[in-house]
Design a protein that fits this description.
A: mainly alpha; 2 domains; B: alpha/beta; binds adenosine-5'-triphosphate; binds magnesium ion
Chain lengths: ~200, ~230
């Protein structure tokens, strides 16, 4: 899972302090394995150095957790590229896909599009495995079938998630730390939702 | 990339208040195996029936090999269906009073082929699908997997250019479903027939060359979309 991209997505939905970023990340995406503070600040330092975020305010008291970070245009482009790129189909993909879907809803992008791109990628690999299977021996068949059943399970999850996007958006709207960019954005087939949009604008 | 064989543009079809198709467009190319996926009730079967000329759409056009299906007379359309199309459905498609061999020979008989010749060709197809041994049995006395292979044989016996298959493995277990798919796709590739394969099972769709997804009566075709964007 890319912590840096997830931070950027959260910052695109609204500027946040270091401590707020960590807390929201842990609660939303990693309740069982909270981030270490060292990783939070190392990640933010790297994002700053690469010009993907800027510090747009400092609370009294000092320390990185008191700084307020905001995303830059380069940062938004980075989030966009990451969300648009399908993941390599492999087991336990759902945590990164779940993160992408939530961030898409938060930033007014099309979550359905992310799931569609991923489905295409999964089926592409499934076709490749099926070709290998039909031209191979029994060992090939058994190995490919194992992978195919797992990919199929992922696809079923993708389908179910696609059918639940409205519910997920409604649930996010009840959370103050994770509020979707606009109640009307990112509905399926809404072409306007495909374009990235600044939150709080 | 091979040529477009069957092109549907902006199909609409309603049953009372239900819009089964709401502007569906899709292209099937010669010899390709196209999987049509999508949730239950999204309009897959309706689309298949429209493409095959079984159900007329309320509006929109379907062109097959340059001829407009939607503008043909019923007689011409039935003739075209018999000569150029083959069909496989989920179940209940074999005529129970006829033996499996007679079932497979039937499309040829309807096309005017003599009985002996029709049965000779039907037997060859049963052999190709590895169910020669059920030739003289009635459909009610064979297994689901065997029955589906007989249905595949029947769909291919006339040498169609398009086979329409609606959940052809839906009633089978994994292993039998796989066998039917292997045999169907091999036979289609050998004869150059295109296959429109409706399925909600990803593992079945993976036998196709590409997939489209039907949602709420609209076809989502990522390949066509990306070509449009590139154009
Ligand atoms: N003959 C009919 N009369 C009335 N309504 C129909 C008829 N055929 C289909 N429908 C309706 O049209 C819609 C699309 O049905 P269709 O059978 O095409 O869906 P499907 O995608 O094939 O679903 P499934 O995966 O369950 O087979 C559904 O709402 C269905 O109830
Ligand atoms: Mg159906």
């Amino acid at each position: 899972m890319s912590v840096a991209h997830t931070f950027l997505g959260l910052l695109e939905s609204q500027p946040r302090h270091g401590y707020d970023l960590k807390r929201t990340y842990d609660e939303a995406f990693s309740p069982e394995r909270p981030l270490a503070y060292g990783q939070v600040y190392a990640t933010l330092a790297r994002l700053l150095k690469n010009g993907l975020v800027v510090v747009d305010g400092v609370e009294p008291g000092g320390g990185p957790e008191r700084k307020r970070y905001a995303i830059t245009e380069a940062g938004i482009a980075d989030v966009q590229a990451w969300l648009a790129q399908p993941e390599r189909p492999e087991p336990y993909l759902q945590s990164v896909l779940y993160t992408k879907v939530v961030l898409a809803l938060l930033t007014g992008r099309s979550a359905a599009e992310i799931l569609d791109v991923q489905r295409t990628e999964h089926l592409r690999l499934m076709r490749e495995l099926t070709r290998r299977k039909t031209s191979g021996d029994l060992t090939d068949q058994l190995i490919c079938d194992h992978a195919l059943f797992h990919l199929e399970a992922d696809l079923r999850w993708l389908e179910l998630t696609a059918d639940r996007l409205d519910d997920l958006r409604a649930r996010l709207a009840t959370r103050t730390d994770l509020r979707p960019a606009s109640p009307h954005s990112a509905t399926r087939d809404d072409p306007a939702a495909r374009a990235p949009r600044r939150a709080n604008s | 990339m091979s040529t477009a064989l069957l092109v549907a543009t902006d199909l609409r079809k309603s049953y009372g208040p239900t819009a089964a198709l709401a502007g569906a467009s899709v292209t099937v190319r010669a010899g390709e195996i196209l999987a049509v996926m999508g949730p239950s009730g999204s309009g897959k079967s309706t689309l298949l029936h429209c493409l095959a000329g079984i159900v007329p759409p309320d509006s929109g056009t379907i062109t097959y090999a340059g001829r407009e299906l939607t503008a043909m007379s019923d007689v011409d359309r039935s003739a075209l269906r018999r000569s150029d199309f083959g069909f496989i459905f989920q179940f209940g498609q074999l005529i129970p009073e006829l033996t499996c061999l007679e079932n497979v020979a039937l499309p040829l008989r309807l096309a005017g082929v003599r009985r002996r010749e029709a049965e000779r060709r039907a037997r060859a197809w049963l052999a190709q699908l590895e169910v020669e041994d059920v030739a003289n049995k009635l459909p009610g006395t064979v297994s689901g997997g065997q029955g589906q292979r007989v249905a595949v044989a029947r769909s291919l016996v006339t040498g169609p250019r398009v086979v329409f298959a609606d959940e052809p493995t839906g009633a089978l277990d994994s292993l039998n479903g796989e066998k039917v798919m292997v045999l169907l796709t091999q036979a289609a590739r050998d004869t150059g027939a295109a296959v429109v394969l409706v399925t909600h099972e990803p593992r079945v769709a993976a036998y196709a060359d590409r997939e489209v997804v039907v949602r709420d009566g609209v076809v989502h075709d990522r390949l066509a979309q990306s070509l449009e964007r590139a154009a």
